[in-house]
Structures are given as C-alpha cells and as structure tokens.
Amino acid sequence: MTDSGAGESVAIAPGEGLPEGWVRATLGELGVEAQPGFASGKHNRDGNGVVHLRPMNVTRNGVLDTSDARYVNDDSARRVEFGDVLFNNTNSPAWVGKTAWVDSIEPLAYSNHMTRLRGPEGLDGKFLAVQLHHLWAIGHFKTVLNNHVNQASVARKALLDTSILVPPHPEQRRIVAKLDEQLAHIEAGEAAARTALASSEILRDRITGQGACGGLDGAELFPAELEKADADDGTLPNLPLGWSWARLGEIAAVVGGVTKDSKKQGDPEYVEVPYLRVANVQRGRLVLDRIEKIRVPAVKAAALRLLKGDVLLNEGGDRDKLGRGWIWEGQIEDCIHQNHVFRARIINDVLDPLLLAWHANSFGKDWCDRNGKQTVNLASISLRKIKLLPVPIPPREVQAELVKVIQSHVEEAAAAHQLAQGALAQAAELRGALLHAAFSGALVPQDPADEPASVLLDRIRAQRLSAAKPVRKRVPRKSAPPGQEELPQ
Which of 100, 183, 324, 370 has the fewest CB atoms lying closer than 10 Å? Predict the structure, then answer.
C-alpha cells in the first residue's frame, strides 16, 4: 500500500453500525501477543547465519522484501514463523506502523525496531497485517507517536490499544483472498507506471546531459582539450567544433553560504533574512514551500543575496546530493543561502545558466561523486574542488537556440513523466477504494452460517477470566496428637 493517495479512512466510527457478524476490538482485547525484537549487533551480508529483518525490509505495499538481506549469527528465541505479523514500532515518523505478514518458511530474526504480533485462533494473520498496514497508510499511527531526537516510536500499550474491525473468521479469509487477487492487478499497474516514471527521468537526464555538450542534433563531435587540474575528470565527452572546455571557477564566481551562529541570533545589529538549505535545492528544481530565516550581519546578507540567474549547487549531505542544483529565479526577496549550498554566478554572460545547471546535474553528478569526500554520515565537496568542475562552453551565438531545443525535448519527457505520475495516482485511488470495500463489508458476500466474531471475542474473554481465577491449594488436615483424638459420639 502506498504512503500517499491511499484513499479515505476505512475505519468505521464507534457509533456507526458494523456489518452483520462483525465486531470492533483492540489488539489487547483480542489477546494479540506483542513481542519486541532484539538488537543484533554486527550484521553481515555474506549469507552466513539467520536473516535479520529490519524496518526497511517492509515495503510501502506491506510485504517483506529481503533482497537487501542482512544476516546475524544468533540463536535468540526472537524468531518469526510463517503467518506471524511484523509491525515497525520504531523508525522515522513517516514509516512507523508499516506492517507485513510473514510468508517465509525460512528462519527469520527481527530487529528491536520491530514487534512480532501473533493473534489468537480465529484472527487471520494476513487480515490483521493488511488492516494495520492500511491504518499506517492513512496516518493513524502518527496520532499515537512518541517523538524522539532522530526517530519516533509507538509504545506497546498504544499498539495494543489500537482498535481494528473483526469479521467472522471465514469472511476474513474470503476478504484476504479477494484482496490478493485485486491488489495483484493494481500492483502490476503500479510497477509499469514506476518503470515508465524511471524511464522518463533517465530520458530527461540524457537529454539535458547530452544537450549541454552539444550531442542532440547529430552534429559531428570532436575531442576538446582541458588543462589538467587537481581533480579526477574521468573521460570528458566530445564536443562540436567551436566548443571548448573550461573550469567552473574560470567562468563563474563561486562562493559558499552562511554558517548559522546560534549564539549571535539575538544580536540586535544583525538582520533577519530568508535562506536556502540543502533540502530546498533539488536536482533540476527548487522546493520553496518551507523557507527558514536566519539573522546575519547586514554586510553578509548583502554579499550573499541571490540574484536571478544564479546557479545553486549543493555542497554536502548524502552522496547523491553532491553538486545537484538549479537556477534561482528571484522567487523570494533578499534570500541568501547556507554554507552547504554553493552559488555560481556566471561572469560576463559567457554561458546560459540553464546550460550550466543541466550539465551540473548530469556530468557533474558523477564528477562530484568521484571528487567528493565521505565521512561516517556525510559526504561533501569543497569550494576549491567544485571550482574545478569541467564545463562545456558553446559559442555564444548558438546558445539561445540550443536552450530552446533542449527545453523542447525536456517538455516531451515531462509529459511522459506526468502521465506515469497520473497512473500511479489512479492506482492509489483504486487501492484506497478496494480497502474501503474490504473493511466495510462490501468486498465479498457474507454468509449467515459463519460464526459471528462476537463468539470469538466471548471465547477470548472466557479464557482470560478462567486464567485469572486464583487456584486454591488444598491444605492437608493435621492429625490430632495421640490421646486427643475425638471421642465417638
């Protein structure tokens, strides 16, 4: 199930009627066992030991994916068996609550960020997993999260207090069978749409990358020299006749941004201005829905003020973020940029900013990957190094027409991208409608002969009551001392 466009909530409000034979109950009332996993210590990828499931092994569609399996040498009792349910109880807030049904007969261990659920006889495990995962998809677990510094969690009590709908057991199985059948068609459509989406993105990158180097119109290409520098340039693409290579620092003024000084944010002589972060600078676009502000000296604000046509390139973050960026179009007045975002301002209009941005997002991606540095949790590329990025320079008289040609092809790729996104959105709507039908009693026919789920609930309550009754131990009767026996009446 997707995490967006999942349809409206399927849960029926407590005051509304339930389908015949259905009940609403919490996991605790149903006697569902909730067993947390264990911290494994070191993993290995060589296939030795037992597969150790982690939250990322549960897909957005609520199934287990062990293609990126990690293994542990462990004989712990924390195992899952075929038919168990795995619930992600600790992760980033967006992923807490993802749930999967275990369909593997191989031995599997599971992380301490997950909880193994086992329901009583009469509660189908796959039905439970599908319903919990759908509650995740519609955002239910976001309402019961405990938020920590880097992650969130659902407490065991909150999990057991989660209310679900329970049909008669035979109907649960009919619902699951019908869902399997229908979801298979939806997922096939989603897979095709995602393939088309990925293809459109690859096509766009190829268009912009080859176009920025003059390789779109079939012109004859030739090797072009570039003076060696302290960088791994790899193999430079051939260029049309009349083009040349230059280093970024030769054709643009490249500067780093401001570093936030939390101790001086209250300085009355500082001015408050909006600023761009790495999250705002994506590959091929700017995301400006959340802009933060910072207080800096007025001189610094003036020096770093963005101008229309500036090309923004990321300095650090995850490795795939290095060098990605786009063009500033003056969307926000007096905006500056933080130290993890470089600003490249073309000198003397020697190059159209679009050509630089397209090139940086294609050739520049691999170049930055080769020339960046990696620490434990962060990748970065220095200002000195980014200035050495090779940039193809077309003759000025061809640049305007070249930009038009590239934009025309990009628009065609964008149209294909939009169609694929529409197909994914439609699939999400179908999935939501299907699940709404499943959990409102409209997906499969009901059978009056099915034992009502209330009988299951009564049976669980009776078993609990029986288990809770104290057992009185029989105290053996003491015999009277000799000579003090009772006399016969």
Answer: 370
